[in-house]
């Protein structure tokens, strides 16, 4: 009797329930259903005279479909920073929100940085200097992105500050973007596929980079632009994590602190090179004179024209 009741339970409840769950799950993934629902959450703004529609932020919803937040970008602009008589930054938009233009009148360079949308609270509040001519770095106040150029403002890419290095903007004394000579450094490499095993390799590091100067730390831009990428990469690390060179390397060789050291990537050894560390520590003492630029980015709500 007991076995019959169990069989009846399975036939009447378990099997139909499992079949129903399969049908619902299978049906929700049919291509027809995806085509029907795709795009329903995407806003469709209408044209507005004197404004350009841009999509600064992409948002992926729980149903795997992309929606986008849009913004009406005004044609109005205001100068928010000057490097010298010929080079300056303009913010296109209203209420100190929009996209930044880099201008070099002498070289006829006029580049809009479309990759980062600046709001009033994302414009850096800390002191900002960029005596470099080839390297131009424009950090956000929250360190979420650092648009940078290595060709004098013709092309901009987006660098990032690692999560373990990022600090509140109140702790940043100043940001400095500089041109400097390259360094050629050694690091341990391996090529198992070719049977080379581990060997010493060399890499040339560009000296053109930016530095966040903090009271007790320096965040330095990793200027190893790897050839495996289609465009230059730059990541800002904390000096406090690599300053004790010999101690950390000894711990690494003994199998300790390995994860902390390797968080810098395959080329972690370059951050322990004395010449490289000396350059980074020296960033705090960079002399800005003669420097014709402003000391801060300035933006006044309602001043755009």
Structure characterization notes:
By secondary structure, this protein is an alpha+beta fold. It has one domain. It is built from 5 helices and 16 strands. The protein has helices at 2-28, 31-37, 245-253, 258-262, 274-281, and strands at 51-60, 66-74, 77-82, 87-92, 98-104, 109-118, 127-129, 136-137, 146-149, 157-161, 172-178, 183-191, 197-205, 209-214, 218-222, 235-238. The strands form 4 sheets. An 8-stranded mixed beta sheet has the order 7-11-14-15-16-10-9-8, with no helix packed on it. The longest helix has 27 residues, at 2-28.
Rg (C-alpha, Å): 27 Å
Tell me the number of structural domains: 1
Low-confidence segments, given as residue ranges, are 26-39, 58-66, 261-265
Number of strands: 16
Query: SSE order, as H and E?
Result: HHEEEEEEEEEEEEEEEEHHH
- Which strand order spans the largest sheet, edge to edge or round the barrel? 7-11-14-15-16-10-9-8
Give the DSSP E fraction (strand runs of 2 or more residues).
25-35%
| Helical coverage, percent range | 10-25%
């Amino acid at each position: 009797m007991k076995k019959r009741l169990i069989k009846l339970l399975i036939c009447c409840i378990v099997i139909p329930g499992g079949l129903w769950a399969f049908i619902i799950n299978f049906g929700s993934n049919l291509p027809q259903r995806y085509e029907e629902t795709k795009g329903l959450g995407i806003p469709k703004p209408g044209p507005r005279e004197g404004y350009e529609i841009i999509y600064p932020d992409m948002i992926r919803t729980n149903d795997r479909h992309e929606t986008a937040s849009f913004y009406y970008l005004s044609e109005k602009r205001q100068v928010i920073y000057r490097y010298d008589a010929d080079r300056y930054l303009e913010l296109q938009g209203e209420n100190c929100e929009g996209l930044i233009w880099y201008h070099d009148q002498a070289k006829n360079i006029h580049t809009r940085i479309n990759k980062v949308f600046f709001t009033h609270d994302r414009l850096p509040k800390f002191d900002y200097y960029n005596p470099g001519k080839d390297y131009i770095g424009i950090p956000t106040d929250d360190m979420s992105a650092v648009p940078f150029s290595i060709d004098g403002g013709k092309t901009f890419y987006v660098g990032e500050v690692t999560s373990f290095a990022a600090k509140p903007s109140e702790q940043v004394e100043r940001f400095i973007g500089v041109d400097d000579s390259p360094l050629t450094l050694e690091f341990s490499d391996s090529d198992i596929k070719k049977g080379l095993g581990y060997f010493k390799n060399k890499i040339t590091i560009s000296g053109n980079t930016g530095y966040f100067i903090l009271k007790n730390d320096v965040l330095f831009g990793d200027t190893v632009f790897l050839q495996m990428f289609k465009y230059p990469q730059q990541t800002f690390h904390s000096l406090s994590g690599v300053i004790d060179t010999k101690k950390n390397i000894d711990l690494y060789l003994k199998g300790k602190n390995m994860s902390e050291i390797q968080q810098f990537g395959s080329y972690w050894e370059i951050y322990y090179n004395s010449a490289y560390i000396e350059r980074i520590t020296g960033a705090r003492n960079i002399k800005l004179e003669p420097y014709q630029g402003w000391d801060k980015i300035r933006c006044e709500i309602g001043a755009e024209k």
